[in-house]
């Protein structure tokens, strides 16, 4: 099965045009389409087999935006809705139209409307979806193409919907694990800076009238406060530039991205979660593509891209090369020394029984559950740790400021 690769382009804000026209069957249809210019909109309609008779630019709303940005979870929800309607026997075009009408996001309604128009013009669904690479990746489109070619689009869409739901749930768990501690530590940093810039100088003025030497801890805090007041803007600027340069280098340098991915897998606790998540994504993707009729070699390509980590991606490409030469997949997986014994054993059982997709689905379910448990355990572990850090940092600053007052009380007594 040939896999079509689509080059991803930068998504820009486009105008929306309302149109009326005639499709290849001679039926009058109408709808909305997004494009940079009216000429491009006409060209896009003609490529879908629609002869536009009327095309008008839709005015933008005076207040607010044209709708929320389309997110992956929106695509996952729409995919499940389409799978349900197809399973109930509703025709494809009608299913897409019904989902579009019931969607609250104007941008999502427009996207679904364009997909519906493309299908009405007689184009295969996978080709219509490939016109929107920012929302439907190669894996999604290849699975749809496999369903169309086999005449089992209903079953394929159910698998795609399950895959998207599991994928989004996994992303949500990982974000939960990362976001909470980062947010709390950021707040702690902001509170510390506020205390050093605005509160400590007030105490310093009081201490200047004591005429006695301040404790070393208090002097250290005052020095930090003075340094932050004198060089705070420079420190912030250098930090912002450093972050911007790192982000830019991370986008441009594949070597840097690979090094970061390898480092993240070695982090305590977080690395364990990322390893389990990569295994879950690999297993779920490979099971979904293989069960859809995609040849194993091409399915491994999709699994490599979906793994989400350069270390696993490289290992899966090595597996693909060895499988292409005739080696069993479970042996090739063992050779990478990356996959746990449980995974390779399940794959071996799947190869021997002819049910690799079932075994991989079970592996994916196991690791998705382990990620869920690990995130919950991490949250329970991090909360007291963060409270301890906050107590030490904030409490240390307060104690440092009150130490001279305590010493004066002892002297007076």
TrEMBL record:
UniProt topology in membrane: Multi-pass membrane protein
InterPro entries: GspF/PilC, T2SS_GspF/T4SS_PilC_CS, T2SS_GspF_dom, T2SS_GspF_sf
Protein location: Cell inner membrane
Predominant place of localization: membrane
Record field: transmembrane: 180-200, 385-405
Residues of the Type II secretion system protein GspF domain: 79-201, 282-404
Name the record gives this protein: Type II secretion system protein F
Ranges where the record places region Disordered: 46-66
Biological processes, Gene Ontology terms: protein secretion by the type II secretion system
Organism encoding this protein: Catenovulum maritimum
Highest taxon, organism lineage: Bacteria
UniProt similarity note: Belongs to the GSP F family.
Keyword annotations of the record: Cell inner membrane, Cell membrane, Membrane, Transmembrane, Transmembrane helix, Transport
GO cellular component, one term: plasma membrane
One protein family per Pfam: T2SSF
């Amino acid at each position: 099965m040939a896999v079509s690769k689509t080059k991803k382009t930068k998504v820009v804000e486009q105008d929306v045009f309302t149109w009326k026209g005639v499709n290849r069957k001679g039926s009058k249809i109408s709808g909305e389409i997004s494009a940079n210019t009216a000429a491009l909109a006409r060209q896009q309609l003609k490529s879908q087999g629609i002869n536009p008779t009327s095309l008008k630019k839709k005015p933008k709303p005076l207040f607010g935006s044209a709708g929320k940005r389309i997110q992956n979870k929106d695509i996952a929800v729409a995919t499940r809705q389409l799978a349900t309607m197809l399973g109930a026997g509703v025709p494809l075009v009608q299913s897409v139209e019904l989902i579009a009408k019931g969607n609250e996001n104007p941008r999502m309604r427009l996207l679904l409307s364009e997909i519906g128009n493309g299908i009405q013009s007689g184009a295969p669904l996978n080709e219509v979806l490939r016109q929107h690479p920012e929302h439907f990746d190669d894996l999604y489109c290849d699975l749809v193409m496999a369903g169309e070619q086999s005449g089992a689009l209903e079953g394929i869409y159910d698998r795609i919907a399950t895959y998207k739901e599991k994928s989004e749930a996994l992303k949500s768990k990982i974000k939960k694990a990362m976001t909470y501690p980062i947010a709390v530590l950021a707040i702690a940093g902001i509170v510390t800076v506020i205390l050093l810039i605005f509160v400590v100088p007030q105490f310093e003025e009081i201490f200047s009238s004591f005429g006695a030497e301040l404790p070393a801890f208090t002097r250290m805090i005052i020095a930090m406060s003075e340094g932050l007041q004198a060089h705070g803007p420079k420190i912030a600027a250098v930090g912002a530039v450093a972050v911007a340069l790192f982000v830019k280098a991370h986008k441009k340098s594949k070597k840097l991205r690979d090094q970061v991915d390898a480092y993240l897998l070695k982090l305590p606790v977080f690395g364990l979660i990322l390893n389990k998540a990569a295994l879950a994504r690999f297993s779920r993707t490979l099971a979904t593509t293989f069960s859809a009729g995609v040849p194993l070699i091409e399915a491994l390509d999709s699994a490599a891209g979906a793994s989400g980590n350069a270390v696993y991606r490289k290992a899966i490409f090595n597996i693909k090369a060895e499988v292409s030469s005739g080696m069993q997949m479970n042996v090739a997986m063992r050779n990478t020394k990356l996959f746990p014994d449980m995974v390779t054993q399940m794959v071996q059982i799947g190869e021997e029984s002819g049910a690799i997709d079932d075994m991989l689905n079970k592996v994916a379910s196991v690791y998705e559950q382990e990620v869920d448990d690990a995130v919950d355990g991490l949250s329970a572990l991090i909360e007291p740790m963060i409270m301890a850090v906050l107590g030490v940092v904030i409490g240390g600053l307060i104690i440092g400021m009150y130490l001279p007052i305590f010493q004066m009380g002892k002297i007076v007594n």
